[in-house]
Amino acid sequence: MPSGIALAEPLKTPSSAQLKGMLVDLTKCIGCGWCQQACKEWNDLPAAHVDEEGCVEVDSCLSADTWTLPELQEIEEDGQHYKVFVKKQCMHCVDPACVSACPVGALQKLDSGPVVYDCTRCIGCRYCMVACPFGIPKFEWDEPLPRIQKCTFCADRQADGLEPACAAACPTGALMFGDRDSLIAEAESRIEADPDGYFHHLYGKEELGGTSWMYLSPVNFEAMGFPLVGNEPVTSLSEAVATYGTAGVAASVTLLLGGLYYWFNGRQQEVEVRVPISEESERES
Amino acid sequence: MSAVRKNSLSLIFVLLVVLVAVGAGAGIVRMINGLGTTTSLSDGYPWGLWIVYDIFFVPFSAGAFMILAVTHIYGKKEYHGIARPVVVAGFLGEIMVVVILLMDLGRWHQFYNILLPWYWNINSFMFQVSICLTIYIGVMVLEVAPAILERLNWQKPLRLIRMATILIAGLGIVLSSLHQSSLGALFLLIPYRLHHLWWTPTLPLLFFASAVFAGLAMVIFVVTLTFRAFHRRLDLGLMSNLARVVAVLLGVYFVLKLGDLVLNGEMGLLFSSGWLSVLFLAEIIVGVIVPVILFGLERVRNTSSGLLAGSACALAGVALNRTNVAIFAYAAPDGAVYFPHWMEILVSVAAVAAGVLLFVLAVRFLPILPEEGDRRSVAMPQFSRWAVVFGGGALALLTITMVLLLQPSTQAKAVRTEATVTTSVSASPREGQQCQACHGDEQALLDAGMDPNEADLYVVEPLPAEAVHADIRCVACHYGDTYAQDVEVAHAGTVTDPTEGDAQICVACHPEIREEFPEDRLRTPHNEVIHGEVADVSCSDCHGAVGHGFDPVSGQIICPMGVCLDCHQERNLDSELSECEACHVGAHDPVLAYECSTSPATNLPKRGRRWT
Fold this sequence. Notes:
The structure holds 2 protein chains of 2 kinds.
Chain A: H1 2-8, E1 20-25, H2 34-42, E2 69-77, E3 80-88, H3 97-101, E4 107-109, E5 115-117, H4 127-131, E6 138-139, E7 148-149, H5 155-159, H6 165-169, E8 175-179, H7 180-193, E9 213-216, H8 234-284
Parallel strand pairs in A: 1-9
Antiparallel strand pairs in A: 1-8, 2-3, 4-5, 6-7
Chain B: H1 3-33, H2 49-60, H3 63-73, H4 80-104, H5 125-152, H6 155-163, H7 165-185, H8 203-229, H9 236-263, H10 269-272, H11 275-296, H12 298-301, H13 304-328, H14 342-365, H15 385-409, E1 426-427, H16 433-439, H17 442-447, E2 461-462, H18 474-478, H19 487-490, H20 504-507, E3 516-517, E4 522-523, H21 526-530, H22 539-543, H23 561-570, H24 590-596
Parallel strand pairs in B: 1-2
Antiparallel strand pairs in B: 3-4
Helix pairs in contact in B: 1-14, 1-15, 2-4, 2-13, 3-4, 3-7, 3-8, 4-5, 4-8, 4-14, 5-6, 5-7, 7-8, 8-9, 8-13, 9-11, 9-13, 11-13
């Protein structure tokens, strides 16, 4: 029975309620680097820098082996000196440019939010690295057959109902994991509760169509190196052109060619086409 | 035939072959060792010279589709004589683009994924470019095939292809239009990373428009040069007509490009972008204005030198434009620099040389140039069979030598820095020898009848002699009998974690444990914990397998803050015990905390999956 078949199929209706997110409250980050340690531990990434005393230092830039870090920003604003640690990692955009860019679907956006990578598909063209507005995907340059590496939003932990390793490790509560919608509400209530303590903007709520990771900050975001971007996803123009532009170009060039061909060759066509055919048939016969 | 000309051509021929051999060596080394050591590419500049090569030589090769359009669609039969060399040059150009593209792919071993329909992402212009390029090359094979079939005198397939000529040409033109414009569309995704002198929603149109004039300029350039080199009489009138069309197309491109800036309200960028303004102007002046002037002057476009100069300028302009888009106008992060590695240059040069070489060979062996006069007058280098054999051998040797020379010096530096601190369990090498007999390796444990699921947990690595606990026997803490031969007897009364529920085993040697570490501004209430005032906390809960290799006192590892916090949270201790001040005493600020994170105190446990 057709209706039975229809009922047996699971209904998949992705809703924004499923979308997980992370709220980063930069007023609470003390830059201890535990998020990085936890990340490296969970993902079995090597500690890159060991000083002469044998101590592991906080890696100071993102790389294939370092997917997150607290970056110190010193900012003068309104005569005040701010030291803010900006936790950097993949933003897990709602409309990710990297996913749109990848020709072989090696990067995928999961329903719950994480943007994840599959090295068995990847051909290493690095278009994702170029396309990412935040410059997040990194390449294992020193490997003979390198992979793209970046924060996975601990998709594996999320699948087991755990929060991402960095959030589990954060000692100050600067990282808050939860449903994206409720995090937005939480962020707004934090700004409301302490209007002097926060810059009144939740970065990532609407930027580039929204990101899973959202930031609260004591100072304006541009000063801290956040890219100044609009609310339109970068993918919308490219994907519209990919769909309509490509079809349009193919159709119009074909039509144009046909038209031109007819225009230039129309009158002689009968003569020219017939001559070789008759010649050939003569030869064959 | 003058010996001088013949020798100089032979010299060029040999030079090309050597360049190809050397570049092939470098290419093989790159394939073996990866991109890190053989290119200057980095996370800051993921794309470099090879991408520029590709996005320049694709429009360069557009000459093929332009000449197809002129001869088949526009129906200008007089251009038939020059169509073949142009189609062959365009074909070879695209082939070399594919070679460089493969060279550039980090994971070249699975390049075929792009051809697997179940992986396709049709929203990706990288996909569209690749798939168009693939089909286009297939179509070009059909375009080039007649020359080869004629030479082989295979009439049947030849007739089939002839019948489909117009369809093949049409398909080629459509595909070419698509992949020229989708090359520009690649950059639509990066409005925030590409400078707005170049980024515009009309990038695909601009790339297409520039491919159209670049294609015709390539026709002029290749034909003029080839006919000159092979002593064919060139109908300058034809070329001059093409040059006039190029001038018009350049004018159209100029209007599109500047009109786009005006309409987007970004004319100001032309004067306010520093050296990028200069690059933009250079592109316009060298690539558009100069060739328009050259091709606008009848006197100039009627000479082969004038044709060469004008078309070379137009092509240089396109090359600069593509370099600007891919590298100069791309906003790399602060501190990132890119200048092509010499191996990148070597490989690119080799690709051009290979293209030229194959073209020369094609002209020599296939009916590509119009037959006229004495074929001998073509100053093709003539080599004896032995010269070819020895030369070929020498070149193969050269390639292999290149590989062997470069291979070791560019081997991937992928020796990952291992974390220095190991939390694996280790034990005394001397006193514990009896225990080591079984606990030294997994197989011995299995032989002794250990549960295979647990055996690896009970492997104990020997403790280095300088370790604090190295001189203490296993049994001192774990009990049991170190000299017993029988397994049962040896393990009578042993405990796996000696400190569990009883701190005495540690306190025996460490009677005074400090409550405060002023140098670290840290308060740790050991006495409350170990004397049982606070619920069951064992020494090992915080200090782990302290007896087996790491030393809390020297700072190699101490109890990390997460252990305290996890525990406090688990036990729902009141909030004051979760505040920083509960343990951290004295002055504290974020910068100090940052420095602290690099100090021995935060030398956290590495590896393993602790954050569960």
